[in-house]
Amino acid sequence: MSLDINTKLLLVFSLFCFNVVFAGESGARRADLGMEGFEQHGRGLGLSHYKGRSSHLFNVKSFGARADGLTDDSKAFRAAWKKACQAAGEVDLVIPKGTYLLGPVKFAGPCTNVSKITVRVKGYLKATTNLSKYGYSAGWVEFKWVEGLILTGGGTFDGQGAKAWPYNRCPTNFNCKLLPTNVKFVGTNRTVVRSITSVNSKFFHMALVECKNFKGTKIKISAPADSPNTDGIHIERSSSVHFSRSLIGTGDDCISIGQGNSEVTITSISCGPGHGISVGSLGRYRKEGDVSGLVVRDCTITGTTNGIRIKTWANSPDRSAATNMTFENIHMNNVTNPIIIDQAYCPFASCTPMGTSQVKLSDIYFKKIKGTSSSAVAVTLECSKGIPCQDIYLEDVHLDLASGEKQATSTCKNVRAKYIGTQIPPPCA
Q1: Nearest to 298 by CA among 264, 328, 259, 323
Q2: Where are the catalytic residues (predicted)?
């Protein structure tokens, strides 16, 4: 059958309209599914190639995570990490909104072909309360030997520590078994942690061990004031570390700087409740590394049992040093022991010292430390008799008693501090 020219043109136009309409519906369906739905429906195993800042996207739900708060999703998290770590280029591992019950999970590298791996935690992660599932000195969620890690997303790590704290023997037993840390980083390099929350850890909230080039910001950490050993951030044997603009309230140190650290900077931290910001404890073990290049600046400490504290054990088995440390522009609100050096540190009910601390403290600067003290003694400099402190500077210190009554006082042992500018309380005689 032959068709005239007008009929042929009409058929071509109809086919064109058909293709436009159905192509638009297909695109709209992809948009309705969203990135998560597109991944699940179109990619199967959770691998998605798309244009943008990442070349690969992995979603824990595509690996079987239920996110119901009851089912153990650990296996799905491990499977998603394994695929992500085996990918190449820039990688995103997504933990969508929902409640995930997890046992101990190790995200281990090296991820040989990955240039950057971003873990986006949008959900609420709950730790199992079965302590038999954790190893000694382990982390609950642990990142090991990873380069170029970014941990972000606004999600929460809930250690469910209240059920574990009764089993913590560390306040009374020198050789106690350590409970798991909420989030632990071991041997990582070029790490960024931003906009995450940690609550009710069984032990430390966050710990860094042998890490380099680590930046943490906009972190929220919370545990009751009476929760044992719930340090907010503990740093050990690490270098080039910077934490800033974070809120920390715990039952122990807001931040503790352990042995073997260098070039650590702490800025704009709000601390309280807790035990303040501490260096140490140092001098407990053999062959501890020195601490140097610490800067703590522009922080607010409120209602804590210590403010800025340096603590070292008596009876140190080996010599070590902590030097070149600056604490500047710190505001104290009703703080017990706002400035304290304690080289006879004993966290137990009683200790029987057999020797002096072998940790040498030198080149330490307290500048612009102001606010109120809840203790009559606002400045305590108790140094080691065996190795007295050297070059301790106090500049523009103004600490009034929170009660508004008589003036606070200072006490010193085995140190000749150097004073500059305002000194309230008055320097040691």
Answers
A1: 328
A2: 275
Q: Is the peptide bond before 281 cis (omega within 30 degrees of 0)?
A: yes
Q: Would you mind telling me the total number of residues written for the chain in this entry?
A: 429
Give the count of beta carbons closer than 10 Å to the beta carbon of residue 175: 6
Strands (E), 250-389: 255-257, 262-271, 277-282, 291-302, 308-313, 320-335, 339-345, 359-373, 377-382
Helix count and strand count (H, E) for the chain: 2, 30
Return the higher-pLDDT residue of 11 and 127: 127
User: Each residue of 159-189: pLDDT tens digit?
Assistant: 999 999 999 998 888 888 899 999 999 999 9
pLDDT band (50, 70, 90) for residue 135: confident
Cα-based distances in Å from 210 to 17, 41, 58, 231, 293: 63, 41, 28, 18, 16
Catalytic positions, please? 275
373 vs 306: CA distance, rounded Å: 10
Residue 220 is inside which H or E element, if any?
A: strand 220-222
| This prediction's pTM | 0.87
Whole-number CA gyration radius for the chain: 27
What is the sign of the dihedral through the CA atoms of 40, 42, 45 and 46?
negative
**pLDDT value of residue 215:** 98
Q: Are 287 and 320 in contact (CB under 8 A)?
A: no
Q: Quickly list DSSP for 140-178.
A: EEEEES-BSEEEESS-EEE--GGGTGGG--TTT-TTPPP
212 Cβ contact list (under 8 Å, min separation 6): 188, 189, 190, 238, 239, 240
Q: Calculate the CA 292 to chain-centre distance.
A: 20
Q: Residue 23 pLDDT more than 90?
A: no
Quick one: CA dihedral 57, 59, 62, 64, positive or negative?
positive
Contact 275, 301 (CB under 8 A): no
The token pair at 293 is 């290049």
Helix, strand, coil percentages in the chain from 3-state DSSP, rounded to 5 = 15, 45, 40
